[in-house]
Amino acid sequence: MSMSTNYRSTNRRTASTPKPTIADKFMERVQLDVIDLRTRPDGEYRYIVHARDHFTRFSWAEALTDNKAIDVARFLFKIFTQFGPPEFLQSNNKKEFVAAILHEFKQLWPGVHIINGDARDPRSQGLMTRGNSILKNKLSIWLVDNKRQDWHVGLPLVVRTMNTLVCSATKHSPYYLVFGQHPQHNLALLNMLSDSKFINEEDLPDGILADASESEYQ
């Protein structure tokens, strides 16, 4: 289909300047992308849907069998019912992609209104691109280190790692910015206690878990 270019220049619209998309609070702006892994399928899984809060860099991700709007909407429904819906939802994909998802989301949660965000700002585009790159890189490392191919198993562990590492931009981990406390990391201590046959809380030495938690973040 061709479009005629025979119109007066006075009727032309100039492109509007993109508005800043930098958020200043948690769940103000959530970015969304679907990572295509059809070249590396894991059983029935072919895609990863990845959502990221712009302000805290907190990530959520889930393995999907398809990239239909309803599947992505259900993923967001689980997030937003726990953390609250964002003001803006945006994606590096076409706005029609987000519009279709928001349409399906409204069927799940009719009373909630979310704005289809403007993703033209390169700062917001770069944040999601970097987030996807980090996720895929860490997931590849997990597969190699554990000699596995079922990436849907490693995905939650990779997302947890992303959320608990200190971000150079914010000087805090996403987990800390969201929950106001550091995550539980005493896996080595718990393994040691298990090896020492401490399996019941009442048998633990007094204060050992509290002391370990305090020393970890000093």
From TrEMBL:
Top-rank taxon: Eukaryota
Residue intervals of the Integrase catalytic domain: 14-182
GO BP term (any one): DNA integration
Gene3D superfamilies in alphabetical order: Ribonuclease H-like superfamily/Ribonuclease H
GO molecular function: nucleic acid binding
Positions of region (Disordered): 1-20
Biased composition (Polar residues): 1-19
GO cellular component, as recorded: nucleus
Stated name of the protein: 6426_t:CDS:1
UniProt source species: Paraglomus occultum
